[in-house]
Amino acid sequence: MLEIGVQSRGIIRENAIEVGYNRIKQAGITCVDYNIVSPEDSTEKLEVTYFKKHQECAERHGIRFCQVHAPIFKYEPNKPDKLEYILEEMKKSIAICKLLESPYLVMHPLELAFELGRVEEERINLEYFGSLAEEASRQKVVICIENMPYRRVGRVWEGACSEARKTLEYIDILNKRAGEECFGACFDVGHANVLGKNLREEVKALGSHLKVLHIHDNDGVTDSHQLPYSFSDARTGLCTTDWSGFLWGLREISFEGVLSFETYRSFTSFPGVLQDSLLQFLYRIGVDFSYIICFNQILDQMGSKKKILFGAGKMFDVYMGEYGKKYPPVFAVDNNACLWGTEKLGIPICNPEAILEIPEDERIVILCNAYYEEIAKQLNDMGINHYELTEEILRMNGKPI
User: Fold this and answer.
1) Which keywords fit this entry according to its UniProt record (predicted)?
2) CA 352 distance to own-chain centroid
3) Of 165, 191, 203, 207, which is the most exposed, with the fewest CB atoms less than 10 Å away?
4) What is the DSSP string of 290-336?
């Protein structure tokens, strides 16, 4: 199972950090994406030693920092000294990342296209990131470039690295100049969603360059940073975010990183007394995500057990298309009596009672049905308590009505 993480923002308050890390751990979450507050938004200076208390507190609670989010600055072309100031603060952020024992620092590209044009924006951004490569290498920190949109006059626009193709161009150029892997990608699901990107294809394109995630939901218009499945189409009831495509993409690239949620607006909007429950629910979502992404490994762990699919509909087709050759079922069962005695894709379809003909220690039933709750009850009534859900890839955007 993949590790599950959450952002510090909205959960860990500076006057009660012990409580914050403890409630994260009690929810089952093991990783934190630490958000460094910009010194421009704080009365305190950005001092590296200040963060030692976070490192010690997290260690006491068995929490690790899977990633750190650098502060966000606005570069102003008419202030030539501003870039030098930003670079110094980013070098401090790399040092903080090292102190927190995090391998990854998430950074935003500078937003310059509206003032200077795309060509100049790219030149300055490559110079900006490249100026940090030596420090990142020295501290053994990988800088992860986030797919940021631009927000202007109530709209979102394509950013410097808001699509995977452009992010890869940046990473390849920067790593080549550095002579080592100092740069990777941070994929933010919500940002890709408001820009109408194909989540599956973006993830696949990033491939091994994808190091960290920001997982959160929105309505496809506003960058809301809410829990997954928070937004749906009023007519169909289906999610406005293509969660199935996102998870499928992660599975196809064999993602092994942390499922890190950036749902801070849920934590700042829910009453404090509900935060523990909210964290537990977020963890449960992460467990389901991990199950889907790692479904190949789950099948491997079944070994030589005979696989029986319960359901001969669309999810049967998905299973056979994805796994039929490597993990063929001995037969499928279905509650539709009209299908008994027939075959589909060369697999016999039987009465569910046929499951009982195979000894329990020699079989594994895989539920290939969107209505798995009803099927699970039916199996329990038959005395069958050991089964697996399929990856449910077709129903991640909502259950059919």
Assistant:
1) Isomerase
2) 37
3) 165
4) HHHHTHHHHHHHTTTPEEEEE--SHHHHHHHHHHTTTS--SEEE-S-
pTM: 0.90
Give the integer Cα–Cα distance in Å for 71 and 73: 7
Tokens 């079922």 -> residue = 329
Tell me the three state secondary structure of residue 261: strand
Give the span between the Cα atoms of 76 and 256, in whole angstroms.
38
Q: Write the burial class of residue 317 (CB in 10 Å: 0-12 exposed, 13-18 middle, 19+ buried).
A: middle
**Phi, psi (rounded to 5 degrees) for 53:** -65, -30
Q: Which SS3 state, helix, strand or coil, does residue 233 take?
A: coil
Phi-psi region of 281 (alpha: psi -120 to 50; beta: other; left: phi over 0): alpha
Q: Which residue do the tokens 């942390």 mark?
A: 258
